[in-house]
């Protein structure tokens, strides 16, 4: 028999935010489970033992959003220090700023174009025979042409996703703008920063509520759902259903650590777009916290591979075969009583931190409204929501 408690599975942003809203706005105890020994999921940060630099254990995370309410929410737990993300791409033809901007175009093609000339030039090299791009490669060929595609995107994307870029959705490339001014910031978002004491401490503070019990290093079995009034599941959706329709494709990443005196690469992230270089990028974490002083530095080279049974899933690949499976899992989710599926892994979408926080906050409002109206059937995140999302994002 279900006790009058809520369970939240996963202590990343999706889980932490919904747990806090439930704790603040209901009278129910909330139990948060995470199989790892820390909160914050893949955003986990901790001080490196040897250098004392705050490292992002699972790769760089830069907070950026246009939503004032999301920015105010995260800042209410911890001040965010100003940080504008800039990325260098080491390509087969040299090093350039990315996303592609006016300087990149002029340096790469050896020109001195004005913004209007650069725009006209890039339009002229795009493949206009592609009317409605159906995948990443077509999107690139249509909007930036073969030369830029091959030097900036083909190799990186093949290494990162482990397949031909023609097999992944066009939406992945749409994450990166092409600019005809000299703005070299990686993100367009108006609000950007790094939490002063790291993401793990931030998530710990979100979860710091008397009604919330956090159980770390404890794997939640879906067989236990019946013990709770409602379960908010933020782990992989295929794992929840015991992979009964097969495994969805995820990419995982591994890191090789480098330690040095002073500075390793002079900036926080350098991408390696050449297929012959095995790593995809190098992260050097002290450049995220320039307000701190460190004599030594630590950097991680990132390697991407398919996710094995014991690996941590990072990126939903969303090849056509995955989408066929995903629809079956969404159908199962729709039939599963009293379980909501929230966040990147449970909805199998390529979401950033700010999207995840916004969705958890938005869904909490809907859920709690019905909860207080004593509705018999509390709303679930998914299936209709997920179905709409599937059409929009894939
Ligand atoms: N990408 C690329 N070359 C780069 C950077 C990005 O081809 O130097 C492509 C790649 O397919 C990547 C996608 O653009 O997965 C989105 O990049 P983003 O920086 O958003 O990836 P994330 O930081 O989430 O891994």
- Under the CATH scheme, the architecture of the largest domain is 3-Layer(aba) Sandwich
The CATH class of the largest domain, by name, is Alpha Beta
Largest sheet: 7 strands, mixed
Number of contiguous helices: 12
For the CA atoms, what is the radius of gyration?
Answer: 22 Å
CATH topology of the largest domain: Rossmann fold
Strand order of the largest sheet: 8-7-13-14-15-12-16
Mean pLDDT over the residues: 94
Strand content: 15-25%
Helix content: 25-40%
CATH superfamily of the largest domain: NAD(P)-binding Rossmann-like Domain
Flag low-confidence runs.
Answer: 389-394
N-to-C series of helices and strands = EHEEEEHEEEHHHHEHEEHEEEEEHEHHH
The general outline is globular
Ions, cofactors and other ligands present here are: uridine-5'-diphosphate
What is the end-to-end distance? 38 Å
> How many separate structural domains?
3
Main structural class: alpha/beta
Number of strands: 17
Would you mind describing this structure in some detail?
The chain has 394 residues and is an alpha/beta fold. The chain has three domains: 3-75 and 197-249 and 314-390, 3-Layer(aba) Sandwich (Rossmann fold); 87-175, no CATH class; 253-306, no CATH class. The protein is built from twelve helices and 17 strands. The strands form four sheets. It has a seven-stranded mixed sheet with strand order 8-7-13-14-15-12-16. Helix 1 (13-25) packs parallel to helix 11. The longest helix has 26 residues, at 136-161. Mean pLDDT is 94; it is low at 389-394. The structure holds uridine-5'-diphosphate (UDP). Uridine-5'-diphosphate binds at residues 89, 98, 152-153, 156-157, 160, 172-173, 175-176, 271, 273.
């Amino acid at each position: 028999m279900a006790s009058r408690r809520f369970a939240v599975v996963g202590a990343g942003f999706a889980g932490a935010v919904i747990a806090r809203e439930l704790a603040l706005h209901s009278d129910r105890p909330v139990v948060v489970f995470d199989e790892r020994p820390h909160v914050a999921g893949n955003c986990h940060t901790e001080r490196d033992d040897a250098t004392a630099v705050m490292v992002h254990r699972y790769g760089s995370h830069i907070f950026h959003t246009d939503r004032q309410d999301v920015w105010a929410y995260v800042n209410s737990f911890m001040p965010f220090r100003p940080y504008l993300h800039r990325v260098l791409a080491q390509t087969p033809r040299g090093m350039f700023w990315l996303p592609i901007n006016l300087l990149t175009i002029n340096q790469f093609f050896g020109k001195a174009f004005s913004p209007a000339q650069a725009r006209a030039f890039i339009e002229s090299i795009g493949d206009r025979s592609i009317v409605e791009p159906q995948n990443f490669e077509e999107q690139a060929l249509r909007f930036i042409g073969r030369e830029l595609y091959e030097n900036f995107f083909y190799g990186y994307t093949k290494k990162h996703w482990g397949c031909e870029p023609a097999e992944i959705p066009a939406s992945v490339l749409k994450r990166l703008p092409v600019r005809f001014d000299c703005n070299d910031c990686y993100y367009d978002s108006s609000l950007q920063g790094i939490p002063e004491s790291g993401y793990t401490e931030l998530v710990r503070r979100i979860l710091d509520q008397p009604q919330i019990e956090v159980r770390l290093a404890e794997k939640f079995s879906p067989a236990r759902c019946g013990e709770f009034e409602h379960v908010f599941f933020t782990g992989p959706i295929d794992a929840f259903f015991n992979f009964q329709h097969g495994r969805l494709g995820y990419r995982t990443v591994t890191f090789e650590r480098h330690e040095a005196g002073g500075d390793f690469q002079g900036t926080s992230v350098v991408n390696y777009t050449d297929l012959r270089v095995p790593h995809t990028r190098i992260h050097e974490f002290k450049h995220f916290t320039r307000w701190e002083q460190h004599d030594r530095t630590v950097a991680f080279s990132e390697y991407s591979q398919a996710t094995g049974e014991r690996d941590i899933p990072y990126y939903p690949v969303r090849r056509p075969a995955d989408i066929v499976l995903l629809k079956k899992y969404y159908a199962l989710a729709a039939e599963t009583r009293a379980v909501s599926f929230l966040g990147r892994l449970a909805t199998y979408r390529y979401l950033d931190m700010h999207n995840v926080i916004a969705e958890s906050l938005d869904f909490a409002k809907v859920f709690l409204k019905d909860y207080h109206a004593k509705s018999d059937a509390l709303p679930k995140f998914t299936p209709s929501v997920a179905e709409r999302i599937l059409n929009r994002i894939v």
